[in-house]
Amino acid sequence: MWNRFVKITTFWASKLLARLLPPRPQPLPRQARLILVFSTIGIGDGLFDSAAIHSLKLGHPSAKLIVCAHRTRQAVALHNPFVDEVVPFGKSPLRQLGLFWRFRRNRPDLVVVLHVNEEVYPLAYWINRDAMVTFANLYERFAFLAAHPVKVEDAQHLVVMPLKVAQYAGGSAVAPRMIYQVKAEESVAIRRRFADWIDHPYVVFQTGGGRIFFWRDWPVENYVTILRWFSDHFPHKVILTGGVENLERANAMERACPGVINLAGKTTLEETAALLQLTKMLLSTDTGILHLGFAIGCPVVCLLHDLCPAENLCPLDKSARYIALQLKRSHPRPPPNARDMEGISSDEVKGAIAGMLAAQ
Question: How many CB atoms are closer than 10 A to CB 16?
Answer without folding.
Answer: 9
